[in-house]
Structure formats: structure tokens, C-alpha cells
Predict the 3D structure of the following.
Amino acid sequence: MKVIWRSCQGKDRKYNSDYGVFCNYSNCYVFIIGDAKEEIESQNFIKYILEFIAKKINSENRNILGILKHAKESYVKAVGIPNKLPNQIASLHILIVDKGNFQTQSFNLGDCRFGCKTNNEWKWLTEPHVISGLEHYVTQSFRTKKSIGEICKQEFILDKTKSYCLGSDGYWKENMNQSDDHSQLLILELDIETLETSDTTINFSIF
């Protein structure tokens, strides 16, 4: 398998608060992409949450909502000020891919998307939690001050001859010339046993 992480900070942004994680576990691959607010504190927040989720997916019974709640509680405990909750918001997209048959579980919360390359173009397989025509308004998200939004779960069987992608809102909007701020986690060559990752590992973790 070949995994490539790409992250591009928009020219008008001070901080790039996206993050990607790839896990090569004994029976599955796990891919996670997250996109948080444009704040310096959000960079540490999204890294903490995604790495926490990645570790727990391999050790718990894959109750995704339970893992997200545990991640939130752990983060609040680690950085919270007494009587004041940290105010962080993020979009998350999790893929769990069975190594044997490429049966894939997709968990979407926010405006990141999962897609497949068809005829040299991305066909998006999941829908973002946004208001139609007002794509910058996210209706569901991972929040520290409020309850976690409603997770959308879907299942797919990946075709080992095709390429796949997890992309932030900036990436799928960029295809419509809406944004130059984006990140993408490319999943290529599923039938290749040798793991290959990009040398560009900024904002990216491998387990």
C-alpha cells in the first residue's frame, strides 16, 4: 500500500490546523483526517484527538462514539482550566479497512470527505455535514463545549485496483475553485504488500 499525506496552508491563514493519521495494525488499516479551527491551540488539539482515537481503535471494541467521548474527556482533563471548558471544534473522518477483504467502515463527523478516483477525477462517496449552498456552515462536528455531533456511518468494499482519498473541506472545495487551503490523505495501490508513505510527514502520524 502507498499512503501519501499532503497539506497546503492557504495564503490568508495564519495557522494550518489539519492533521492525518495512518495505522498499520495486524488485522486492519486505519486512516483518520481531521480539520480544526484556525488557531495555534487547535493544532495541538487536533493532534491529541486523532492520535488518541487511533490508539483506542486498536485496543477497544470499536465503539466509535464511545472512543470519541473518551477522547474528549481526556483532552478536557489534560488542558482544561477549572470551571472553564476549552472551546475546540473539529471535523473528523475515520476509515477502518479490513486487510483480508478490504471491507471498510467509514465514520464521518463534519465536512471532510471520502472519495474514489474514477476517470482521473474524484468521485466523493460521502456527504459533508453542511448546509447546501452555505458549505462553510458545518452542522455536525466534534466539540469540546457541547455534545459530540451525530456520526454518519457507511460501509464500502474497496477495489484494490483503484485509488482513494480522505480530503478536508478545502480539498473538495478546491475542485470547485473555492479554496487553496486543503489537506488530503491518499490511499493508493491496496494490493501492494510493501508499505510506502510520503516523506512529507508534517501534521501526520504513523502507528
